Amino acid sequence: MHGKRAHSGWRAGLRAGVAVLCGALLPGCGAGYLLQAARGHTELMSSRVPLDDAIERHASLRAQLTQIRAARDFASRELGLPDNASYRSWADIGRPFVVWSVVAVPEFSVQPREWCFPVAGCVSYRGYFDERAARAFAARLAREGYDVSVGGVAAYSTLGRFADPIVSSMLRGTTEDAISTLFHELAHQVVYVPGDTAFNEAFAVTVEQAGLARWLERRDAAPDAGDAPDSTLLEARRAHLEVQQRFVAAVVRARADLAALYARPLAPAPMRIAKQQRLLRLGDELRALEAAAGRRAGFSRWIELGLNNAQLASVATYWQCVAGFERELAGVDGDLRRIFQRVRDLARRPEAERRTLLCAAGPR
User: Fold this and answer.
1) What is the C-alpha to C-alpha distance for residues 89 and 165, in angstroms, rounded to an integer?
2) Residue pair 264/251 in contact by the 8 Å Cβ criterion
């Protein structure tokens, strides 16, 4: 399984993913982890009901689910995303997140630890259907000296191998957040390179952003009866993305500075002090950005969770290569079907070549 969509505020566009339904016991995939993954997946799949039935039964969710159903049709009809059984069912999971994702990075490194699984390949996160299990695993890694991050994940994907449902946790944010998540997950079914999380996530982020903009533009041009035009919503989304881009740039700069620091021949104590000073500066930058945005962007809460290498790695994984994909999309005049073929071609190239073509300078 490949769960997506991390929680809260500005993180509507940031995800900490989760792998894996292991097909066999492999190094790093012990029996206990395998059991919880298999049990959680089975329970989720068995809780599905057809989306049409959910719309009929849940009056309080009817408007949201109707919009999501229309967006699912739009995704295949207008965006060229897969037309299959994925996200045409509903699962009420009765908890705030479908999975919890753990990211771990050594104290003096910017490179996240990876876990390797069938299908998904090597990924820089590990996920649990039970929050307590995720936090216990994170605590164990912290005792081993890692910087760790635990994030709730609202959506779920098996990369099209099962008919994945829309889960109730996807509705924690706005309807537009849920729709952008839908586009993101379907993009993974178009192209997914095992072992290259940064490539996969940046591609899916690019598709979700382009897809949501087109969805809102379509609704603005031809709103349904009773719907207000979405031009204001579209402008708000653009403003949000601008703030988000500044956030990502600040995080990437801090991560590059930390990479340079960790390469210096310093003893642990002074390196630890210098690391903390750089993270404090990043916190100040983000609070200033939040204040300038004139609204609560969610940065303060993220800072309160504890800035560390794992937090920064999560951002870089999803965003550092997005600009490269956006250039590729602009190069084909925004034609998503053409960019899909271009990205398939890139996926066949060596990882180092892909990174040179797509990713900004700086640490992975």
Assistant:
1) 5
2) no
